[in-house]
Specification:
Layout lengths: L1 E7 L2 E7 L5 H10 L4 E2 L6 E5 L5 H20 L4 E9 L4 E6 L6 H8 L4 E4 L2 E4 L5 E2 L5 E5 L2 E6 L15 E10 L7 E5 L1 H8 L3 E2 L7 H11 L3 E6 L9 H5 L8 E3 L15 E7 L2 E6 L2 E4 L4 H9 L4 H12 L7 H14 L7
Helix pairs in contact: 7-8
Length: 346
């Protein structure tokens, strides 16, 4: 049986081409995946490619299947972003993060003609910031038809640079109407977590999801947002996007010890971090940003304080309330954290 070996996020996925696969369809499979074909002996996974009544739909489905298998093979080892990846000649990579429909494939087609094409869908990052490329076919939307699968070379995209790939920028995409020159602005730490987590695969497989992400955010100098109208407008600002930035806010772990004297995190809470007085809690695959006096309450729980000491800590942080008793407000905050599933019901 003929086969085709693909490099996807540092893993090898073998496509087993059925003997009765029409020659024309086999040629289309090989053409579409020309940008990621390698020579391998032992693959990490094998996917069968069988004849189908609709070759276009089969090619679209195959792209999804390869992506899902690559994600599954790298879960818990790579930080996996739903992003377009573009590389400068020196190996610095910008990951343009955004949900489906935010223009990542169009951005890849445009910037990939000027810079190295890493991926139009998934950027995988190791703990040392090494980027594992996934040069899949571009999945181009066609009205009323399956997405067209176009090889990077056929779309006029550049090869990867010779230099090792290393993540240099995490960029949130915000495509709007006619705004002229793209706007680049830093994203606050809490906002960055809220927007990045839904655009990551298998983050919850890490023992400390938020600490894993926060460490990566700090290592690349924080997260930026680019607001733009056309992908072509971003060519001129790539140097700015890839340039080093100042140190982002320092963060620290903020997970209370279970079985503390006052209250404990619920079983759904797997991680928490604090930066600039903001506490972010990870539970059930979501990030919760604590507001009001809740961060001070959480800090008290983290320190193992009893109820009276937590009230004193909150008063030290926020002063005495103009209306009501501090004790009542602290109790209400604990009730709300419990209702949100972040604390164990007493």
């Amino acid at each position: 049986m003929a086969h085709l070996d693909l490099s996807a996020l540092g893993r090898t996925i073998r496509l087993d081409l059925a003997a009765d696969l029409p020659a024309e369809v086999e040629a289309r499979v090989r053409d579409a995946w020309a940008g990621g074909t390698i020579s391998a002996t032992i693959p990490d996974a094998v996917l069968p490619v069988e004849p189908a009544a609709d070759a276009d739909r089969m090619l679209e489905r195959l792209s999804v299947e390869v992506t899902l298998r690559a994600l599954d093979l790298t879960r818990g080892s790579l930080r996996l972003f739903h992003a377009a990846g573009i590389a400068a000649d020196d190996g610095r990579v910008a990951a343009f993060v955004g949900p489906s429909g935010r223009g990542k494939t169009t951005l890849s087609r445009t910037l990939g003609a000027h810079f190295g094409y890493v991926s139009d869908e998934t950027v995988g990052v190791a703990s040392d910031l090494t980027v594992l490329p996934y040069r899949k076919p571009l999945s181009i939307v066609r009205e009323g038809h399956p997405k067209q699968q176009v090889a990077p070379g056929a779309a006029g995209l550049r090869d990867l640079p010779a230099a090792p790939l290393r993540l240099a920028a995490l960029v949130l995409l915000d495509r709007q109407g006619d705004i002229g020159t793209p706007r680049i602005e830093p994203v606050p730490f809490d906002r960055a977590l809220l927007e990045l987590v839904p655009q990551m695969s298998y983050l919850g497989d890490f023992a400390h999801p938020l600490q894993t992400l926060a460490g990566l955010v700090q290592a690349v100098g924080g997260v930026r947002r680019v607001t733009y109208s056309e992908a072509s407008d971003l060519v001129s600002v790539m140097d700015e996007l890839l340039a080093p930035t100042g140190e982002p806010a320092a963060w620290r772990p903020a997970l209370p010890v279970r079985g503390g004297t006052a209250q404990s995190p619920s079983g759904d809470v797997t991680d928490a971090v604090e930066a600039d007085g903001i506490v972010a809690v990870y539970a059930r695959g979501r990030v919760h940003i604590l507001a009001g006096i809740a961060p001070a309450v959480w800090q008290g729980l983290e320190a193992g304080l009893d109820r009276r000491a937590i009230v004193e800590h909150v008063v030290e942080q926020h002063g005495r309330p103009p209306v009501g008793e501090a004790t009542e407000l602290v109790d209400a905050a604990i009730v709300e954290l419990t209702r949100e599933g972040l604390l164990r019901a007493a």
